Amino acid sequence: MKKKLFIVLEGIDSCGKSTQAELLKNYFINQGERAVISPEPSNGVIGNLIRSTLKKRVFFTHNRQKFDEQMAYLFAADRHDHLYNDIDGVFKLIDNGFQVIVPRYYFSSLAYNSSTPEQFAFVSKLNEKFPNPDLLIYLDIPIKISLDRLQERSLKEIYENEVKLTQVREKYQQILAKYSDLSLIIDGTKDKQIIHRQIIDFIRAKFN
Predict the structure, then answer these.
(1) Residue 175 maps to which CATH number?
(2) Number of domains, the chain
(3) Alpha carbon 186 to its chain's center
(4) Is there a domain that residue 122 lies in?
(5) Angle in degrees, CA 77, 17, 153, rounded to 5
(6) What is the pLDDT of residues 2-29, one digit of tens each?
(7) Is 1 a member of any domain?
(8) Domain-located, residue 121
(9) Which DSSP letter does residue 86 get?
(10) Quick check: is 193 in a domain?
(11) 182-207 pLDDT per residue, tens
């Protein structure tokens, strides 16, 4: 492929983002391409703080609205570093010839860090200058499947509960309905290899 892509994978928790990111990376490598998975939160200083907070090892406040606002600020700061830092930023990697696969991007902030129209506007403002990816892939699964898969984890994160995930899935649907750039929505309950083939076929059709 001549074009080096910035590909984002989105969806509620346990929808299969990590699995599909790994399969896609391996596909590119097998095609003779350089490819890397660069998730959000990033592996930078701010990203590590976010991960500790989500795992409840760092505490800010019991006030849910203020907590979501704090997380939105942190994610936006981490996202700027993730995109633009000169060591392993997304655009640095693309300039160096890598296909870059990003599990979670600003769509996750919009879905997870806003519960009201006012909060959505606030998070949107924080993220309005971040560029859209070349391709957004959304893996859609029912809430029950997400919760069943999460039961297999030894440690749940702060947003991993039925009420929050229901709100998040609805928010994603609203975001996708208004998103006008290139996107692919996939039934995430299908076999992982079938999903992978759908992604590959779509990329080949659009970018080869």
Answers:
(1) 3.40.50.300
(2) 1
(3) 15
(4) yes
(5) 95
(6) 899 999 999 999 999 999 999 999 999 9
(7) no
(8) yes
(9) T
(10) yes
(11) 999 999 999 999 999 999 999 999 99
